[in-house]
Amino acid sequence: MDITIENPRFYFKLFYLLAFVFIYAMVLYKSVKRKYHLRSVLLMLTTISLFTVLGSRLFTISIDHWLSVIQSPATEFNNRSAVGGLLFGLVGLVISQRVFGFNRPMLDLYAWLGPIALGIIKFGCLFNGCCYGVPSNAFWAVRYPVGTHAHFNQWSAGLIPSDMATTLSVHPVQLYESLILFVVGFIVCKTHKYWRKNFSAIVSGLVLFFFMRFGIEFFRDPSGSQFNDVYYYGLRWYQWSMLLYGVLASVILLIYERYLSIELIKGRQNSPFLHADFMYIILISLGLYTFKGLLSTYEIAVIWIKFLPAIVLSGYYLFTDNRLKRYRWITSLALVMPVYVFAQTIPTQKPVVKQYHRIDVGGSFGDFANEVRFNPQEGECGTTYDSQYFKQTYSVVGGGYSFITEKKKSKITYGANLSAGTIKSTNLSANTSESDFIFGVNPYFKVDGKWLGGGGGFQLGNLRVNKDETIDENNIGDAQKTYTILPEFYVRLGPKKYFDIDYNYGFMYPSAFPTLYSRVSIGSGFGLSDNYSLRYGHILNLDTGYISAEALITEQFGINIMYIFEEDYYLPFDDNTSGKMVFSLNYRFGHKSK
């Protein structure tokens, strides 16, 4: 099988980002269900991402070169190590757990998410041609074209002539590793409940990982590894080290689980002190600024997509928590520092593009509550109603296509989105539930100038909008009205690159969001471009706030994230609602530059 991809480096970046987005989405989903403080969760995610990225880079650089990495951009250090990323990421997890006190469920979650995320990254390595396998005659073996690491190294070793179009057939060792990592994640997920100690599931995952790396190296070409090729008794030193780490981790797991009476990692109520979050933000900002020359754009992006929402949430709690009322303006200075670092780390230059196509994929999940009043009756002060309370739990996925034309002073977008999902309606009064399939088709257009913007469209399908209902009927069948068609429009005032205000009625792409149809927000692109935005807004029909972030990570790949705060809604039942998430990825192609 020949792997001939026009831009293999792009696919490495894509799967790298997908791995971190996978962890991001899963941790947020579990955190929302367990009602954790999201600012602490996001700061924990930021810490683990920063340590993982730095570990994967620094693990391949000798310690005597670390100072030069800090002092100036280190373009010659381009290797990465999954082992370094895993070990440093584990350190970041332990540090954030000690600060925020997350309990065992969060540790067990990371124990199986980590191997799966590494498995996703290995798909990028497969397409990129790095860390390739030894020659093989198997029918599933792969060959790499000119320009890949595999082709260059085989030519340098004299195995192929320079004019040969592809390499010798080699084992797709990255695919082997990816599949095994998925199995490791599955095993850890299914066995984590059987361990007695909080940290045992993570250590068991490390045991399986190290033994896996020991075995997989028999199929990897030594010239495709960034580590030394010194041999002892027929095995490379790297293999011996993996075997040694595996045995050592096994012994530690045995002693910790059976013979130690103490817990290495203790859980408690997370987010103990608000001021600790601000000290934490300063330290993360210093780390990002220190190593900004080492990290690539997409590595920086996987950190900022967690860090920016954490900063906004911390600012929100700063001005709503009375404990820091006396120190608000002084403490808020801590939030200025990461914004400055952000401006220093995100590149401001982008090619001048006239037209391009865009594909979005994403989803949303969460729950909301409402009250339905029915059975009108004449009372002493007018008409009275009986009431029933409902809770709606939904999951929606969607995709969209758009065509964008960028002119000197404006951007015109035409597009359409398709979304579908399920919504479960629970009558809290009667304790009954029913599930419905919801879907929507959404054609739209937008025109954005420097100072003004606007657009319109409509949604057609089996649609839901969250709002309290009053019906003049004697009985009730459902908590919400179903809509066949809903209009949508959008207006914006101010330069999006610096500061703007907008109002949206609908306009949530690519996934239809069944609780949100009217909102107002303010935001900024921090002077970068209109492809970057951090926003805070208010949803009128939910009477609650939200934060959102948008970033163009490469010329082709972007991400949008929104978190809606838990609404302050009275329910006469012990069944409160939680926050809600919307996220999407976008891919841009077919660029026509001036």
From TrEMBL:
Task: Enumerate the InterPro entries for this protein.
Answer: Lgt
Tree of life domain: Bacteria
Give yes or no: UniProt keyword Cell membrane: yes
Membrane-traversing stretches: 12-29, 41-61, 81-100, 112-135, 173-191, 198-216, 236-256, 277-295, 301-319, 326-343
Q: Which Pfam families does the entry link to?
A: LGT
| Gene Ontology molecular functions | phosphatidylglycerol-prolipoprotein diacylglyceryl transferase activity
Name the UniProt record assigns to this protein = Prolipoprotein diacylglyceryl transferase
**Single GO cellular component annotation?**
plasma membrane
Output one GO BP term.
lipoprotein biosynthetic process
Which UniProt keyword terms apply here?
Cell membrane, Membrane, Transferase, Transmembrane, Transmembrane helix
In which family does this protein belong, per the annotation?
A: Belongs to the Lgt family.
